[in-house]
User: What shape does this take?
Amino acid sequence: MSPLQHSMLILFGLLSLQVHATNSAPDNYTDFGPLLTLTQAPIPAMGLSLKTRDAFGWEKGTLEVYGQGTVSSVWADGADYIADYYQNDVNIGFIYAPADDWKIDVNYLYRFAGNNKLDGLVNGFHDALGLDDNGRHDVDNDRFYIKNKKTGTTLEDFQGDTLNNALNLYVEKTVFETKRQALSLGGALYYNKVFNGNFAQSSFEQAIQLNYAFYLTDANRFYTSVNFVHHDTDSIDLVNLREFTTNGSISYQYLFNERHSILAEFRMQQGATHNDENELSMVSFEPIVGYRYSLGFAAVEFSFTENVINSDNSADFSLTLGYRQRF
Assistant: This one.
């Protein structure tokens, strides 16, 4: 059974529990805020990227543990390069509130190239919606292939290679809070060490981040984040990275009731490279749509990510399944 089939089986199993659920709200119901999804754009994903945050503070001593898995299909056929492969990641961590206005997030990310069989699903999705597949139908499915069109250099059959092996520390302070809105400021440290394979690298990156949350009503909630990242420009030999990038996101959550909510996010990231004629230097745009099933003290989240506008600088399609629990 493929990772996608596992994810769908788990999701539908959890949804079936609602048939036997009562309409009463759990006594310890928790709002988990925006999704914790990570970018799947190939170059930004290899370094420190933006994660949308809830600016509201938590009660002192609150602890959240979380884990999520993502499968992605990367397809890009630009003027200078071709990239056609799958990437998969596991992100686990915890968030702790040492005070009412402070939060600390420590998490680990492992991303690797592995065959998740998404090409068939992506092709069907594009056909169903009448979307341009940008030449995907012209090549075989399930490839692991990267080519620099200018130099002729190719990288093939790298299935199983590690892409990220990273630790991330994020510390945040809520600087303003009312019943309906909050503002927070955070900072992140990121260390990535891939020991071997085609993507072996070592990098240390830093970021500052501003977050704002606004509750229009109890059911309609908005979150936005902006960060400024200092990149390790020696970490990737294939491209000339920008030393600094600015990225932003806006997220919306609608709570149908204490059990069900839907979430939508739009993420924008500055181009990762200096080459003004290369698609990798252009802004990437990732719309994300998700569903959350709340168990009161915990939540299961399922989301998918597409790329729009600039089709050759982000993953073609991604699916994420996550679990979060508060103590």
About this structure: Confidence is low (pLDDT under 50) at residues 13-27. Residues 28 and 296 are 6 Å apart (CA to CA).
